[in-house]
Structure formats: structure tokens, C-alpha cells
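Handout, section 4.2: multi-component inputs.
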Amino acid sequence: MSAVVLIGAQWGDEGKGKITDYLAQEADLVVRYQGGNNAGHTVVVEKRTFKLHLIPSGILYPGTQCIIGNGVVIDPGVLVKELEQLRQQGVSSHNLRISDCAHLVMPYHQKLDEMQETQRGAYKIGTTKRGVGPAYADKAARTGIRMADLLNREIFAELLARNLEEKNHLLAQVYGAEGFVFEEVLERYLSYGEKLRSLVTDTSLAINQAIKEGKRVLFEGAQGTLLDLDHGTYPYVTSSYPTAGGACIGAGVGPTKISSVLGVAKAYVTRVGEGPFPTELTGPEGEHLRQRGYEFGTTTGRPRRCGWQDMVILRYAVRVSGLDGLILTKLDVLDEMDTLRICTGYRYRNSMINEFPHSLHVLAQCEPVYEEMPGWRQDISEAREYGELPVKARDYISRIEELAGVPVKLVAVGPGRHQTVIKDPIF
Ligand code: IMP
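Output:
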């Protein structure tokens, strides 16, 4: 049995897309289980760049089946466009399947996301404004519309009418904004439904069947541990469950079927949006990481905040997702650094904190305690074997392993598919 869950161990943008793409070579099935088009993956294959938001990166391999699971919220207009773009780039989507239970992101969700952010003023979350939070809110409130509903004109029309009655009222009365016209949304969405119809099915069935047959299944998380609705830096989180437990709920598989959980972490830390970030570098070193690591959002283009590696965060990710290994990405971004710093704990007032605090008030006052290590100061982007990495780079990795308590399995030394060093094979 080989069902591997791959999650983000930090605040998202850890390079999961590249790693999923790499592992998808050997996987039979790649499954997305949460989030929506707030996520963005950039995959570089032979100098061609693919930007994916909803479709699993496995789509780039014709022999790999890709699944968008029930836990994902789907903006069908975005999905149709993404399929069209892939088609134009010569990539077939015949291997994609979409869960009939996945909820839809509706135009009013996106509008509400925008309006709510504006209204929050100084307390804004910094959402991607893709309507993801409001779509999950409707799911929890049991007023959401699912993929299966989109395939039946009468059912969809009725659900849309009920929702528009409430949402148009809310938009007008609370936010002073214009609402949506029933016929326009109805016809537009039904046309998306027709384009997606042949791909919609009970995906839990297919995933469980594949596991039963001993196929290799990769569950691809979006966002990261600290953006998890329960375990993240609430309220500066997304509205889904990027931690490993989310894979079971969002794909319809039991925990006993999962064989391994791996966390993807950058060699440093980045964050987009608001909220405390203890190891943030606001000066020239942060700018260096941003430029060298090209740290700008795939979805929104926003510059990412950058900082030193934080082991309090990685230990937390190991705990809440039961990680049995780490994948370290963008190690090459540190090539020019003279000295590297690793945060081993936080100083809060006069005491030391070794576990990630849940109170944002406490987190905001935490001072990172650092260990320093010498940089390797050489180009590692051509390394393909672990032994080809400079000793100082291997020392840096070993220290992360020691402090995290789990091994590092893969190391990424550049954006290309081949720029991946295997320390310990995954499948
Ligand atoms: P939302 O998911 O658009 O509601 O945004 C909530 C928070 O999650 C914001 O801080 C976003 O910047 C962050 N976020 C959402 N998706 C991603 C992602 O794919 N990478 C990094 N941050 C994300």
C-alpha cells in the first residue's frame, strides 16, 4: 500500500507544486483535497511554465489520473479556463475527475470576500479574494451548491434562486453593493456544468479502489499548516484543512489507508497576507530572499514576506500532521548567504517557548532565538546526488533533521523538474 499525503509545513507556497509534479511521475493517482483557486502552483518543465490553481500538477503526465476531491471548492469558470489553457499548451485533461460532492464558488462568494475584506479595515485577513472563505462558510451553513447540483438544471436553478434572494439582500443592505441577476448566473454556470459534466463522478470510490489495488496515490495539499482553519494562526488562516487530517475528509478515505505523510518546507520561511511572523526579515536580507527566490504570489502577484527557517513551526507541523519526513525546497536560494540562521525557540517576555503558541497576541511578542551556521557560498543548482551538495549545505540539512525529529527525504535545488536531489526515495 502506498498512499502518501503531501502537505505544506509552513504558511503555504512551500513549492508543493514542483514536488507533486516530481512525485507524480511515479504516482498512479494525484488527488487535491482542499482549498480552491486561492492556491497556485507553478511547474516548470523544459523551460515551459504551467500555472495551475485547481488542477493537480499530475495532469502534466498523461498516465497519471488526477482527482479534484470533495473537500475542494471549485469556481467552475476558473476550472474551465484552466482546462482550456492546458489544452492550448498541448496538455490533455482526459485523466481528470471531479468529485460530485465538491462545493461551488459562486460569484456572490467572490463579491462577499472582497466586501468583507474592505469592511475589516485594519483587521483584514489579506485573503486572495477568490471567494473561498464565503464558499466554505455556505458549505458549513448548509446552503452551498455542489458540483452534482450544477448538472441538473431544475435543482441548480432552485438553489441559485434561494441563495440569490439571501445574498443579493446581504450585498445591498449590509455592503451597499449591487447584487447578481438570476438568469445571467444561471446560464453561465449551466454552460460550465456542460463543459465539466463528463468529468464529474464519485471520486472517493475511485481513490479507495486504487488504494485497494495497491496503486500509488499522492494526496496533494494546498496552502500550509499555519493556514489551517483549526491549527493555523487563526484568524489569519484559510477556511479549509491543509493539515494531513484534511486529506481523509477531503478525499473520502479513512486514516488507516494512509501510509505516509510528508511535509514540504522551504529552506527559509515565507508568508503572504497579514499576521505575526517571528523570523520575518524586513531589511535587505529579506529583500535578497524575495528576489532570489522570486517570492511573489502565483495567484495574486503579491510580494511574499520572507524570513529565516523556523523550527518551532516545523516541529508543530510534524506534530499536528504526524509527518514522517520533510522535503526541503529552494535550498539554492540560500547559496549567496554568508551566515544562515535557524530559529530553535522563541523568547516570550522572560521565558523560553518551544511549542508554537496558539495565541496570536503571544506569537506577536515572541522573539526568535537563533542558531547560526556558515553559508556554503556556492551554486548548488546543478547538484543531482546528495553527495554533490557542499558539506555546509548537508550540515544545514542535518541540523534541520535533528531539530525537527524527522528525516529530510528530498531537497529541491531549483525550479526545474530535474533539480531535485533524492536523499531517501518516497515511493
Ligand atoms: P483565502 O484562502 O483567500 O481566504 O485567504 C486566507 C489567507 O490564506 C490569506 O492570508 C492568504 O494570503 C492565505 N492563502 C490562501 N491561499 C494561499 C496559498 O496558496 N499560498 C499562501 N497563502 C495563501
